[in-house]
Amino acid sequence: MNNKIAVVTGANGGLGTFVTQALLDAGATVVGVSKDIRQSDFSSAAFTALPADLLTAAGATSMVASVVARFGRIDVLAHTVGGFAGGKSIAETDDATFQRMFDLNLNSTFYLLRAAIPALRRAGNGRIIAIGSRAALEPGAGVGAYSASKAAMVSLIRTVALENKDAGLTANVILPGTIDTPANRKAMPNADVSKWVQPATIASLIAWLAGEAGKDVNGAVIPVYGSDV
Computed from CA positions of residues 103, 30, 27, 119, in that sequence, does the dihedral angle turn out positive or negative? Predict the structure, then answer.
């Protein structure tokens, strides 16, 4: 991926850290985006930290404009930002929780895609890879707002794939099971982590989809469930 410009959202998160490093290892120039990203988070000279708030249209537009102004283009967009809320039935879910799930998982994705697609189309063979959730296809009790927001996100990514195939732009979404991150271990201290998905596995898949070998994969919804199938 030499000479490729990749943007990773949530670049210093539990999954984003692995994705950023995998793309750096593949030879890409990586712009890491999050609210609190720092240049010191990665040692590579090919890494650039770009603090940004992607929960607003203005924040997403400004971030994309900054990347294009500095590097001239965007070749890869790896979107790992999201949020989770659960524990209540639909009948018990309050408005704020439902809206927050859609803000974090759907609206932020929409703002980002709308801002970045023109630059990705100009790249000629741009790649979008987004992180969804197993819950998008297999909703469970107590996670209705989260599942619905992730299902809507999947629909958005597949629509982007259809709308931009003429430009050689691909858009795919990965649906992980529970990812083995520090945050998930803290939230579920008694879980059997041996069944969880390793973040490095997802990062390797993203790097493959972003590279030349992944050019024929478009509009795919890819399950990555670990041993918990």
Answer: positive
